[in-house]
Amino acid sequence: MSSSGARTRTELAADYPDEEWRERFLDLRTLVHILAHSIIPSGFKASDELNRAIVLSDSGKKLRHQLVANESVETKDANLLCLLTLTHVDPLIDIERIDMGKLVDAVSEMIRDKRILYPMIFGRGLYDEAVALFPEERDELKHGDTMRLLQDKPQGVFHDGHYLIGPFGLQRLEFERDLHPSTDIPLQHCSDISCTAIHNVGLSTSREAGVNQHRPLASKMLRQFANEPSDWSGFAADLIEERYNPYEINDASTLPFLLGDGLHDTELRKLLKRVVDTSDGRTRTWASSFGFSGDVDKWSAELDRASLLNLLLTEPDDALAEALDAAVQEGEIEVPDGEVRKPVVNHRARSGAWGLRSELSSMGYRIMPGSSTVTLLRLTSLARSLFDPESADEMNDLAWLLRGHPGTTTEERLESFLRTASPREILSTLVLSREGNAKKAAEVLGLNIGGNDDSFLDAMLWKLGFVPNRRPDIRDAYWRNHNTLEKFVVTPLKTNDSAEEALRKVAVNYFVALERHLFDSLIFATWALLTDHSMAGRPFEFHLQSARDFTIATLNSSVERKDGVERNDLREGPVLAELVQGFMRLSNHLESLRGREDDFRREKDEYPRFVKQTDLQRFPFEHTIPYLDLTASSQVSLRKTLRDVSTRLGDSGILSARNGLLHAEGKQRTPTTEEVNSALDRAREVLRSLEQIGCVRVTFEVVSSETDQWGRSSTLLSANGTEIRVAGPSSYELLGMPSLHRKVYLMQGAVFAAPNEMLRFREGFDSLYAGYWRDFVRRPEPANRASAAQMADSGADVEAPAATGA
């Protein structure tokens, strides 16, 4: 050991000024971190290639001699211990002479051969395997259980510093990432149904392997040589301090988590094909080095998620983000309008001072801050950058644009405008005012200028982190067609067509929209009132296809069959008569639940843990059918309204109008315009009553939210002229219902606690992403929790505002 004693970070910097030496030191330090965070089996031995690649310094040779001669440690293990320790007072490795290429190749071969293992933290593969293997909650896994979990699973994908890890081994790339390997991984939900987090579980490497058995011994010897090591960690931190800006708002370092959790394998293959075609041959060269050549579609079809990610991550995040954006914009990856994809298993992954997370929608990729405050600051920063304060001409242009806003100077008017205008109005006024501004905003946000102004504004708001404008609901299409038909029947005919022919043309669209609207509302009401949302994989999230299947099965089985006759049963694409009957069936089914409450009583182990631990929060869903936990008045009102919808629609004349207008043959008489108008008036009243009890999917958005000095809040939500005010704080915030500050469906007729605690839901989507994560949440048994203390002797070694306005 050096006789100079432990040195400070400043002294180390003076002793090692050479830049090449420093880079080799950092690379070697990263490789040690990669090895130290691997999982090895009990019979692990360093490969001959790894052993030959290790070149010890004089200090390292001294430690090796003591371990081999005095403690009978095998030479290979002693060499590897020196590498894993790396530094003490001085480096234990000869950093100048060691062949980094040989070392990387040796480690790479061990990864490919699975002599050292890494968990695949992306996707649901390990999660599902843990569900199958371990029925109880775990904090840690014993080594044997760890090996069972990882058996036959692909190598995990990580990128630590310059080094990319995956099924294809270890590669040094020109760029860095901070996606370092870990044995503490997100793996398991807990049994508490009120908890949505995926909890980390510690995986265990073998303590029996020689290199791990002797690590305490090596540490003891080093303390005998010198009690205190030099400050190598501080020295390394100083070297990399300038490489990372924690305040970078466009930091895309969480993109790998979105790729790993937010895309289906099919979509990853499409993205890979685009990257291969657009990366100037870089990705194709890497693929060739891994043994793949020719048609990407053919060889990528055989790759699993880990291998696809391994190849994709050979490209830097900015290039991947650009390719992902293009793949979505050009329809290669189809994201339904309104769906926002986020990491699922890795939902806690955020970066930097702003808590950034990667997200994807039909408008492309974005970097989302963890706070709405940052979103607003980002908007105002962009707005201020569009006009040069040193240019008199530009400030005059800005003054003209803001001439109607208060302030004695242009700067004051701008700040007043930024504080009071909606985000959309700010962008419309300042960005769209000049071509140069639009180009600058597009460059800053990674957008292409094209299409109409509204779509460009939507894209900018999305990229900045705002909630997109509300999309039209199905009921909106109905009312649009209703108003068109109503206007037609009260307006004198001004065409050459006969009144009957013209009426039929308009009526076709109306009745298609009516049947679609009624079916959607029947599906929503049945699903919302009869599904156990608390135990659902994605609580209080409406998915149309599964809800449709549930509704058809539930309502068709709710009536007795007579001689095998099925009359007015629901089916895919039901006609108006079947839908009218469906609302009656739903009302009757709800009536049939009265007096049978005990049949649907929730088991005690399905209650959230907080029920026994606090009275500050309440759990109202004592039954597996939420309808049974609504207030008595809500139950009565829902049954009555649903029955009235069926009865009054049947009596409104809308059925006979449909048959007369859509069926020209037979004895069916064509209704007059007066009869159609009368039927529309009655239908309007009936359908408004259905909306008033919330049995229609209507998207509500926050208009305003106020909080007083004691923390009491008042949130105003609005949809199509209907306003609902919700007071807080609420004793029902741990139910898993969606935040009021997101777009929600409010079921105002389904009140479970006074004065207006009502069922509310978020919209789910039918996509490859949604299908991949369907039925994802699988909770372990609560009674068999394996605590950290129990594991100790077993060998076991982680909101933006809405963009409304003009």
Quick overview:
This protein has 33 helices and 14 strands. It is α+β, with helices and mostly antiparallel strands and 806 residues long.
Count of distinct structural domains: 5
Strands ordered across the widest β-sheet? 8-13-12-9-10-11
Portion of residues in helices? 40-55%
Radius of gyration over all CA atoms, rounded: 32 Å
Q: Let me know the number of strands.
A: 14
Low-confidence stretches: 783-806
Largest sheet: 6 strands, mixed
Per DSSP, what share of the residues sits in E-state strands of 2 or more residues? 5-15%
Morphology: globular
Straight-line distance between termini: 72 Å
Strands, helices and their partners?
Blueprint: H1 9-15, H2 19-36, H3 48-53, H4 58-71, H5 75-85, H6 100-112, H7 125-133, E1 136-138, H8 143-150, E2 158-166, E3 169-179, E4 184-188, E5 199-202, H9 210-213, H10 215-225, H11 232-240, H12 255-262, H13 265-278, H14 282-289, H15 296-300, H16 305-312, H17 317-329, E6 357-361, E7 364-368, H18 372-385, H19 392-401, H20 410-420, H21 423-430, H22 435-445, H23 453-464, H24 474-489, H25 499-530, E8 541-542, H26 544-556, H27 576-592, H28 610-613, H29 632-651, H30 654-662, H31 673-692, E9 699-707, E10 713-719, E11 722-728, E12 744-753, E13 757-763, H32 768-773, E14 781-786, H33 788-791
Parallel strand pairs: 1-14, 8-13
Antiparallel strand pairs: 2-3, 4-5, 6-7, 9-10, 9-12, 10-11, 12-13
